[in-house]
């Protein structure tokens, strides 16, 4: 009877630790927004997700969700993982953070034929049309103060396609985006052929893997943390950063 009990307990903890499926938020741009096979999911965050999860017994799948909705889903435990998430005191109430995953640099993307010179955050207030920001995104404390004091100079969007459409129709002067994403999209996505990337840095900070506290158990968290600290993962991390020109 004792051996049977030990076996049942052992099997239970094995399933808790390794028998899992991780649901990962992702959002594609432009032509990439068309539904495709899982093998076609690609990009910076896809590579980072695979680097962390490849050596676990967890299966994983990507789901397309706008950023703000995904944050709500992560908080509720409806999805398990988001990537490239800034750490804030409020978010730490609901998410486990592993990282830093990488350094994020936010810049202004504009239409190449209608680009402006930006030398300070205050220059955003003098542009002829609003600047688009992603709902639920965090661009640093200094920018947040500017946004709260001058809301009429900004427009909130829920997805990437909307930003591109607004820019194409000259409804906005530009939109804020991670520089690495812009470089990658300009290289591989025809929808970005007209995009100009301004050199001025809006915000630069560490970003992390963010796991839901509602759906992830402690054993899984410890497993992912061990993998993140491993030399094998660090090698993968450097290769990914080099691939996207972020080293």
TrEMBL record:
The protein's matches in Pfam families, at most eight in alphabetical order, are given as: SBP_bac_3 (PF00497)
Q: Which family does it belong to?
A: Belongs to the bacterial solute-binding protein 3 family.
Residue stretches making up the Solute-binding protein family 3/N-terminal domain? 35-244
Does this UniProt record's set of keywords contain Kinase? no
| UniProt organism field | Pseudoalteromonas piratica
Would you tell me the protein name for this molecule? Solute-binding protein family 3/N-terminal domain-containing protein
Q: Which residues form the signal peptide?
A: none
Sorted keywords for this record are:
Signal
């Amino acid at each position: 009877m004792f051996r049977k009990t030990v076996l049942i307990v052992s099997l239970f903890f094995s399933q808790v630790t390794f028998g899992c499926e991780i649901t990962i938020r992702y959002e594609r741009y432009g032509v990439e927004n068309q539904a495709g096979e899982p093998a076609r999911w690609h990009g910076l965050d896809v590579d980072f997700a695979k680097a962390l999860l490849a050596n676990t017994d967890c299966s994983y799948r990507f789901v397309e969700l706008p950023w703000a909705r995904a944050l709500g889903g992560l908080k509720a435990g409806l999805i398990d993982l988001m990537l490239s998430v800034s750490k804030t005191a409020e978010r730490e109430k609901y998410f486990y953070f592993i990282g830093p995953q990488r350094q994020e640099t936010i810049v202004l993307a504009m239409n190449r034929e209608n680009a402006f010179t930006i030398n300070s955050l205050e220059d955003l207030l003098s542009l002829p049309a609003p600047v688009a920001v992603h709902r639920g995104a965090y661009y640093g404390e200094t920018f947040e103060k500017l946004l709260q004091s001058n809301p009429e100079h900004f427009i909130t969007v829920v997805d990437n396609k909307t930003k591109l459409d607004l820019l194409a129709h000259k409804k906005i002067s530009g939109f804020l985006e991670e520089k690495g994403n812009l470089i990658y999209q300009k290289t591989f996505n025809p929808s970005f052929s007209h995009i100009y990337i301004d050199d001025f840095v809006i915000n630069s900070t560490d970003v992390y893997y963010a796991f839901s506290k509602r759906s992830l158990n402690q054993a899984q968290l410890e497993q992912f943390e061990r993998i993140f600290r491993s030399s094998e993962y660090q090698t993968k991390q450097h290769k990914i950063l080099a691939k996207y020109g972020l080293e």
